[in-house]
Design goal:
alpha+beta; Aminopeptidase; 7-stranded mixed β-sheet; 22% helix; 36% strand; globular; binds coenzyme A
């Protein structure tokens, strides 16, 4: 399954995939379609801020975004966000491949030491994916997100590049 950084020309495909993600998997995301009805690729097109896409033929079926912190004292850290694999392509290793490709690009960045992400504590499938990719939980925010009146905890997870699997 080819994986490559998305370009501005991929925006329309990204918008379609993300509307599907937020509509069909609302309970797994801290962001909502109500926040942004026309979601665009959320990153810059650079080595320190990018979104990878996984393709089945010409179709974008998976994405993961990476943003390195820019502040002087925190630029040893980067955020992974907006992980999604369309159900038609799930369970084939694409989620894991997106994380591994992101870690591989992250290793090129001088001074970067750790990747962090958040995941809803109810999302056992994603937690398993992140754990098997080298992430460990370090905090849990109680009642972080309100989805249709249900308050859900959010896990914060980190992967130190020196300890992440190759
Ligand atoms: C979670 C998600 C990204 C996984 O993507 P995927 O491509 O299906 O995952 P993979 O096939 O790479 O599987 C990786 C790991 O996920 C877990 N996993 C995969 N399918 C699973 C299933 N049916 N049940 C439980 N865990 C499963 C496993 O730990 C697996 O590792 P293993 O094969 O070594 O056991 C995808 O299902 C998804 O987009 N879900 C909805 C949105 C979402 O939850 N996004 C994350 C927000 S933080």
């Amino acid at each position: 399954m080819p994986i490559r950084p998305l370009q501005a020309s991929d925006n329309a495909a990204y918008t379609t995939l993300w509307i599907n993600a937020l509509t069909e998997h609302e309970k797994h995301f801290r962001v909502a379609l109500e926040d942004d009805a026309h979601p665009q690729i959320p990153t810059q097109f650079s080595a320190e801020s990018f979104t990878l896409g996984a393709f089945a033929g010409d179709n974008l079926v998976g994405t993961l975004s990476f943003v390195r912190e820019t502040r002087f004292k925190t630029k040893h850290k980067a955020l992974l966000m907006r992980m999604y694999v369309h159900p038609s392509a799930a369970g084939q290793g694409i989620g894991k491949a997106l994380i591994q490709a992101t870690i591989s690009l992250a290793r090129n960045l001088i001074g970067l030491r750790q990747l962090y992400l958040t995941v809803l504590a109810s999302n056992q499938r994603a937690i398993r994916l992140y754990t098997s990719s080298g992430f460990s939980p370090f905090a849990q925010e109680p009642e972080s997100v309100n989805i249709q009146g249900q308050y859900i905890d959010e896990l914060q997870m980190v992967c130190f590049l020196s300890k992440c699997p190759p």
